[in-house]
Amino acid sequence: MGQVTALECVRCGRSYREDEVLYTCPSCGPSGILDVVYDYEALEANGFGPERLAANPDRTHWRYLDLLPIAPGAALPPVPVGGTPLFQLPDLAERLGVVEMWIKDEGRNPTGSFKDRASSVAAVKARQLGFQTVCCASTGNAASSLAGFSAQLGLTAFIFVPEFAPEEKIAQLLIFGATVFVVKGSYLDAYELCSEAATTLGWYNRSAAINPYAIEGKKTGGLELGEQMAGRMPDWVSVSVGDGCTIAGIWKGLKELRRFGVIDRLPRMLGTQAKGAAPLVQAWRSGEEQWASVEANTVADSISVGQPRNGLKALRAVRESGGVLVEVSDDQILAAEADLAAHGVFGEPAGVTGLAGIQQARWSGLVGPDERVVHVMTGSGLKDAASARRAADREPTVIEPSLGAVQAALEAAR
Ligand SMILES: [Zn+2]
Q1: Concatenated DSSP letters for 234-278?
Q2: 23 C-alpha vs ligand 1 centroid, how far in Å?
Q3: Domains, in order of start, for the chain
């Protein structure tokens, strides 16, 4: 398990031992995001590979412990994470104009989002590092997820959310027993306050933006998707992009599977940002590895990130895969939410943003009609009821409790 050899800075390339550094590169500062490096040869020599994976009956994401930064014998949270369904929606494929459209429904995770993969690993890691208190700044999902796993592992959780965090996510935080600070300001303000509190008060900071282990948890999304699609890898894997951690994590997982011969080819990555929070799309267009921060404003709260911290990993993942980054409007996002629901799947705005991106990429010819696409739907629609009501764009009919009232209402609607 966990053959970590180093933490390597994505900016300057310096390597650190795991016990030397907690979050980011001391030489580059906060922009020096660290990447966890494993000894793949040693893993292979110890028998890790397609056969061992195939023989493993564990369907949760802990089946990838060999590729996670977790020491042997660590206590794992009992509620299963991962093992989410991947299924085809032929009618949606037809509507989007592609030959195959697959959805990986991450809303089926225990707290309703993809973030459970990251938070579960970060919570286990916090315990392993000897912390009893964890904290996190989040637009909502990462926080509610960290609160859920803290409840399971007996950790104390302090959460910093911006004012726009949906009520449902705050309710989740409270019911899981976290102390919640609603910060009067943006996500950026919440993020900076959380970092300061962690440093000063000695808490373990799970904020995906700087925590090198959170992205390793997200990696299991790619590992799982790759295993599920082995032998029939799609042309594109689509996901919405805020901070950049999710797309980079999925890409790393897919690359590891190819390294170990579980899959024989890699898909292209299609990242979609909301127009109101799209600094990485600007960087993508200009061919740069840096970006100006923006005042984030989008209905897709989970990707409402004006200053992506993992942007470098995200841009490199997209470029390395021969993929693209596109942006879509809030109207397109809400339309995609209604569209996906019409096919039976209820996603939150950020979860469906990538679907609007696929449509956009089809219109502009970036994705072809004969291509096969998997969209990673990152969060349940129940996370944000107000946006769902906007997307549905219809109202219930209030009636007296009589059949006559039903008939009258039907007549009136005719
Ligand atoms: Zn560095």
Answers
A1: -SEEEEE-SSSHHHHHHHHHHHHHHHTTS-S--PEEEEEEEGGG-
A2: 11
A3: 95-112+213-392 (3.40.50.1100)
